[in-house]
Amino acid sequence: MQAEKPREARDEVPEIRDVKRTTCCVVGGGPGGAVLALLLARAGVDVMLLEAHPDFDREFRGDTLHPSVMEIMDQLGLADRLLELQHTEARSFTLQTVSGPFTPVDFSRVDTKFPYITMMPQTSFLEFITGEAKRYPNFRLVMEARVRELIEEDNVIRGVRYEAEDGPHEVRAVLTVGADGRGSRVRRLAGFEPVKTSPPMDVLWFKLPREEGDPEGLVGRFGRGHIAVMLDRQDYWQAGYVIPKGTYPELRRQGLESLHRGFAELMPEYADRIEHVKDWKQASLLSVESSICPRWYRPGLLLIGDAAHVMSPVAGVGINYAIQDAVAAANVLSGPLKNSQERLVNLDAKYLAAVQRRRELPTRLIQRFQALIQQRVLAPTLRSNAPFAPPPFLRLLLRVPIVRNIPSRIVAFGFWPVGVKK
Ligand SMILES: Cc1cc2nc3c(=O)[nH]c(=O)nc-3n(C[C@H](O)[C@H](O)[C@H](O)COP(=O)(O)OP(=O)(O)OC[C@H]3O[C@@H](n4cnc5c(N)ncnc54)[C@H](O)[C@@H]3O)c2cc1C
Known about the structure:
Helices cover 35% and strands 27% of the residues. By secondary structure, it is α+β, with helices and mostly antiparallel strands. Strands 1, 2, 8, 9, 10, 11, 19 and 20 form an 8-stranded mixed β-sheet that branches. It has a 7-stranded mixed β-sheet with strand order 6-5-14-15-16-13-17, with helices on both faces. A 3-stranded antiparallel β-sheet has the order 3-7-4. α2 runs parallel beside α5 (122-133), α2 (31-42) packs parallel to α10 (318-343) and α10 (318-343) packs antiparallel against α11 (349-383). Bound molecules: flavin-adenine dinucleotide.
């Protein structure tokens, strides 16, 4: 047993190890934070990226890069090198239904150089982006930096305090960006409260082995109270099993056989593979959320990505939207940040308001689109024991030339997509 420290030692406030200065301090090295840091560094802005984890090797949290992201990479001259990394390409999304295959999303119908979703481990993507950023001397990356506090003076956020292995550190910055994801600490410390809606489902994610002859890309099936999606990850399937919201404890109580049975009924051709899930530890639960902060900024502080708006997994647009926020923020803020770096002046909050204005409407629109699919398609499927058949009007609608491209375009680009400002 460890001896208790004397009281004085326990109450001692650890001394700040050092105070660093930068122009923009980005908290969180996920897709949004990493891309923003790269874009600012490329524009000549001093930027420090703080990431809580020791590396980018993380639990599965979506490995999809949509056509809009690939076009951004192309504008940066990075697409070809990115595509040299191991990846797969999903060109359409086909559901097997009782009335035959149904393909609501087909990227060949979209006008883009990249008519597919690039499926690449987030680790590879984040290492690639931060590797690019490291080519700029004005970029600094600090791993294992867990941000604990905001520094606030005269109602302006002036940076953060973070905890590292060797103790607490301070970063002083003209702008602090909270890109620290769905459970954002920066958001909470800044006093922002997201407005939540409750999607009707949760998702259990697990890996299943792939075998020769398996189809490529995305596979999905709806019916009998459940939904399954399988993402081709070359060496394995990343399988998502959608269950009605809040029913995970009941599923666990029923035992793994219940998961095996439900999945096998839906995907009989993969019935033997689900047997590979032998322990609940092999499955991770995504508690599906959808939310948006009414306000994304305060003087000296901006939220982007999941910190500003958590996305439902419908259409898998979370990464896409976080990166588009980053691009919009860099487009608006690079000039003003360089100006404040050179002339040592504060950043006018009107620029932060401009970022929110640019991104709030596209976010609200895609969340509406997701809510519509949740209410009209997913919730009835999860409530019913019957096999899923797409409503005949939907099949008809998707045969009309100008209409049939709309879902594919929305998934590929979202609403009002952003490009890198030259
Ligand atoms: C299981 C699962 C599956 C998903 N599937 C998909 C999908 O298929 N497609 C898709 O587009 N989206 C998917 N998403 C959503 C997607 O992961 C997010 O929308 C996206 O990652 C948001 O990017 P971000 O940069 O805003 O935040 P995040 O990716 O969450 O990154 C936040 C970063 O901040 C770091 N951080 C947190 N707190 C601190 C702190 N205090 N100090 C320093 N660093 C901190 C974290 O370690 C993390 O690296 C999925 C999410 C989950 C959980």
